[in-house]
## 1
Amino acid sequence: MKIFISGVCGFVGSELALGLREAGHEVCGCDNFSRPGSELNKPRIESAGVDFSHGDVRREEALERFRGIDWVIDAAANPSVLAGVDGRTSSRELLEHNLWGTVNLLELCKRESAGMVLLSTSRVYSIGALCSLPVKVSDGAFVLDERGDAAGPRGVTEEFSTDAPVSLYGASKLASEQIALEYGSTFGFPVWVNRCGVMSGAGQFGRPDQGIFSFWIHSWARRAPLKYIGFGGTGHQVRDCLHPRDLLGLVVLQIGRAGASRDGRAKPRVVNVGGGADSAMSLRQLSEWCEKEFGPGTVAADLTPRPFDLPWVVLDASKAEDVWGWRPGISTARICAEIAEHAREHPEWLRISAG
Ligand SMILES: NC(=O)c1ccc[n+]([C@@H]2O[C@H](COP(=O)([O-])OP(=O)(O)OC[C@H]3O[C@@H](n4cnc5c(N)ncnc54)[C@H](O)[C@@H]3O)[C@@H](O)[C@H]2O)c1
């Protein structure tokens, strides 16, 4: 099969590209290198045989030369929840990259009769509803105190509220989901929407606003300043954690089965894809892990809440398991160990990632 990946030099795009090449697929893709550090993945993917173009999905012409495509994986985005309000990118630019870019990729799917795998996000879920979930502190981490609507100990389900506000980033993805599903149904191609939780692993270009596991471990290793922001400066905020190689396993199932027989049409189009409750970790717990790995460090407390911050986000991915027989297999401990090894080998990584 021939697979086009947008954002193919990004953290997730490059992992998917390498994995799909290993699985014997033809892979092509483009990246505009807007993410600092992403250009470092160009030689890696090209030496694995990926047909790469320096191009921007906001421009339809950048996709013109790609022909004979069976699947498009949309992995190009500004993935920061602060995008559009952080003074680095405007709200218009955010929507051009994340929403208009997806529209151009859907036009590519239409032209090529190709399917689409959209990498969406847990950030489509309502900030108000997530902040209203009752949580208590246990073992240095927020845990759910009692079941909420579409939220339980396994995490939040796909039925959880997506009411605004969800952040401009979350809204750009929610709108992309809707438009992708509409294109698929109107023009008759399969669309799978994967609402991904936090993804982490070696080589991620971590920053405080995106790629937190990578940023934290690299910063600890270098004794760079760290702070617990908001939530009383305690570091109790929790995320689950998924390695993109686990996502790859799901994508392989999605492009295989739906591409072959179309029986996938009956499957739910939108699933949560996350490490789940077993992988969940608070920042304070991550600090404890870092201390064992690298020795003591200090973390300041910044009591000022940051826009869009959430106390507890864990994705219940049981629908993906029921529908696809998919489960993540790489533990958070393994992910952290992989990042720590990378941090030892790449002392310059924080500087590269900061741009
Ligand atoms: N990493 C996570 O924790 C996470 C979680 C949920 C969803 N996602 C989604 O997964 C996808 C990949 O995220 P990532 O972590 O690899 O981010 P990343 O920033 O590492 O990769 C995105 C890549 O897209 C490229 N890009 C951005 N705008 C582009 C444009 N207009 N044209 C061409 N290339 C462009 C960037 O240069 C970068 O290489 C994104 O859609 C993101 O929203 C990521």
## 2
Amino acid sequence: MQKIDKEELQKRLDQITDLFASLVTHADHQSTWRCPYKNRYDQCTAHFGCRNQLKAGGKGELPLCAGDDKLNYRSAWNTQ
Ligand code: SF4
């Protein structure tokens, strides 16, 4: 088995830390305006009603999100 060089290991850990830090920064920023239930295809993954949901074309497909990402999306949720 090959020995692990501690300096090389630390360098790689630092690279991974930098990578995840930038992902977290982006997610933090995006969460201030984009609903967390909206996926990358603009579909709604919420398991509750929301007035921004539009019926999808196909059976079993997720509803589409009609939210414009400019409003406070929480006021549209049916939370009863
Ligand atoms: S705003 Fe409403 S419809 Fe859009 S993803 Fe969020 S919960 Fe779903």
